[in-house]
């Protein structure tokens, strides 16, 4: 009688690559479709729409890290989409190719986009710090788990030594 081995789960690189491929292909098709569907005089709105959609895809790629065993690929794609989105939004608002925006509207949109960019960078820094702290915590935990366990007698002996050495001095006779 032969037994079939259990099916092996897909490799982490395969799942991460699949997530990246799906999001990149859907994004490229959607972006090119938007740009080609909007007539020549509406390319300003097409670039704004592509920039906003790129930020939505960045958020989707960031959330896809939870599904991927190795989050490196979706994280890189998230930063790529975020870079594309902010580049398109900032470039379109600053250049204002069709002069649709007045100076005040252009300034207001620029401030809003820069605030979103600042929030994204602060969130990225916070995430980077928390990952670094998790690595340090994991290393300490592994070191603690690898060490030999102490017995209860060791703890009670250490407590007794501390109590003896740190006890207050006994007052001399005649002192209150």
Gist?
The chain is mainly alpha-helical and 176 residues long. The protein contains five helices and no strands. α1 runs antiparallel to α2.
Provide a descriptive summary of the structure in words.
The protein has 176 residues and is mainly alpha-helical. The chain has one domain. Helices cover 73% and strands 0% of the residues. It contains five helices and no strands. It has helices spanning 12-37, 43-63, 72-95, 103-146, 152-165.
What is the strand and helix layout of this fold?
Blueprint: H1 12-37, H2 43-63, H3 72-95, H4 103-146, H5 152-165
Helix pairs in contact: 1-2, 1-3, 2-3, 3-4
Write out key terms for the chains shown:
176 residues, mainly alpha
Strand elements, count: 0
Q: How much of the polypeptide forms β-strand, as a percent range?
A: under 5%
Cα radius of gyration in angstroms: 30 Å
- Classify the helix fraction into a percent range: over 70%
Largest sheet: none
How many helices does DSSP assign?
Answer: 5
Global structural class: mainly alpha
User: What's the mean pLDDT score?
Assistant: 80
- Count of the separate structural domains: 1
Distance between the termini: 90 Å
Low-confidence stretches: none
**What is the element string, with H for helices and E for strands?**
HHHHH
- What is the molecular shape? elongated
């Amino acid at each position: 009688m032969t037994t079939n081995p259990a099916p092996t789960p897909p490799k982490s690189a395969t799942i991460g690559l699949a997530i990246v491929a799906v999001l990149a292909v859907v994004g490229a098709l959607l972006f090119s479709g938007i740009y080609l569907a909007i007539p020549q005089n509406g390319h300003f709105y097409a670039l704004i729409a592509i920039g906003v959609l790129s930020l939505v895809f960045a958020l989707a790629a960031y959330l896809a890290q939870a599904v991927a065993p190795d989050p490196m690929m979706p994280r890189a794609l998230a930063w790529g989409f975020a870079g594309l989105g902010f580049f398109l939004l900032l470039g379109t608002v600053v250049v204002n190719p069709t002069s649709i925006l007045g100076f005040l509207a252009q300034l207001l949109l620029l401030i809003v986009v820069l605030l979103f960019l600042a929030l994204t960078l602060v969130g990225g820094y916070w995430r980077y710090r928390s990952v670094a702290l998790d690595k340090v915590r994991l290393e300490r935990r592994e070191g603690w788990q690898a060490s030999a366990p102490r017995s209860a007698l060791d703890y009670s002996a250490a407590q007794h030594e501390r109590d003896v050495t740190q006890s207050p001095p006994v007052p001399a006779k005649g002192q209150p």
